[in-house]
Write a structure and sequence with these properties.
Layout: H1 7-25, H2 32-39, H3 43-49, H4 53-76, H5 82-95, H6 97-112, H7 121-139, H8 145-165, H9 171-205
Length: about 210
C-alpha cells in the first residue's frame, strides 16, 4: 500500500526547516532548487506545497507568528496581575530565545535586501507584526498602542544586545528593571484614568 502522508503536518515540518535556512542564509540568497536540496526533497515536491518562494515565505511568517502568539498567550493568560503577566511574557521569551533570534534575523535580512523579496513580502511581515502587537495589547491589557511599541522595542533591543555581547545573564534578570518601570507606569496611568473618570462623573452630576 502507498504510504499515507499527513500533508498539513509535513508542510509544517518543511516550514520549520525553511525557517532555519532563511535565518542562516537569508531569503534572498536561496533559490527554490537550493531550498529543495537542503530539505533533501525534490523540487517538484517543494513546488507541490509552495508554488513560489514568495508563497513559501508568506506561509512561513504566518505559521511562525501564529505559533509564537498561541504559545505566548497560553503562558500569559494564566496570570491576572499585570506584573505577573509581563513577567510570564519574558519567561516565555527566555524559553524561546533562539527561535526569536531567528525571527529577528529573518526580519533584518528583509530590510537589508527588501528589493529582492518581492512586492508582497513587506505586507506579509507587517501583517505578522500587527497580529503579534494586537495579541500583546489584548492579553497584557495595555491601554495604548504606544505602549505596545515600547514593549516590542525593549524586547528586540534586548535580543540584539544579547546576540552582540553573547550574554550569559538570564534573559528575565536583564528584563527585570524594565518590567518594574513598565508596571509602575501602567499603575500610575490607571490611577490617573480612574481619577479623571471620577471627576467627569462628579461634574456630570452637578
Amino acid at each position: 500500500m502507498p504510504k499515507v502522508v499527513d500533508h498539513p503536518a509535513y508542510r509544517k515540518q518543511l516550514l520549520a526547516l525553511c525557517f532555519d535556512l532563511f535565518a542562516q542564509h537569508g531569503y534572498s540568497a536561496l533559490t527554490m532548487r537550493q531550498i529543495a536540496e537542503a530539505l533533501e526533497i525534490s523540487t517538484g515536491a517543494l513546488y507541490h506545497y509552495f508554488p513560489t518562494k514568495e508563497a513559501l515565505f508568506q506561509q512561513l511568517v504566518e505559521e511562525v507568528t501564529q505559533q509564537t502568539v498561541f504559545e505566548a498567550i497560553a503562558q500569559i493568560q494564566q496570570h491576572g496581575d499585570p506584573e505577573a503577566r509581563l513577567t510570564a511574557l519574558f519567561d516565555f521569551l527566555a524559553q524561546h530565545e533562539e527561535q526569536l533570534r531567528k525571527q529577528l534575523l529573518v526580519i533584518l535580512d528583509y530590510y537589508q535586501h527588501r528589493d529582492l523579496y518581492g512586492s508582497t513580502a513587506g505586507k506579509i511581515l507587517r501583517a505578522g507584526a500587527d497580529r503579534y502587537c494586537q495579541a500583546l495589547q489584548n492579553y497584557l491589557h495595555l491601554p495604548d498602542q504606544k505602549l505596545v511599541v515600547l514593549l516590542k522595542t525593549q524586547i528586540n533591543g534586548l535580543l540584539v544586545q544579547r546576540m552582540l555581547r553573547a550574554s550569559t545573564t538570564p534573559f528575565v534578570e536583564q528584563a527585570r528593571p524594565f518590567v518594574t518601570m513598565f508596571v509602575a507606569f501602567l499603575r500610575t496611568t490607571e490611577a490617573e484614568r480612574s481619577m479623571l473618570s471620577e471627576t467627569r462623573a462628579q461634574s456630570a452630576e452637578r
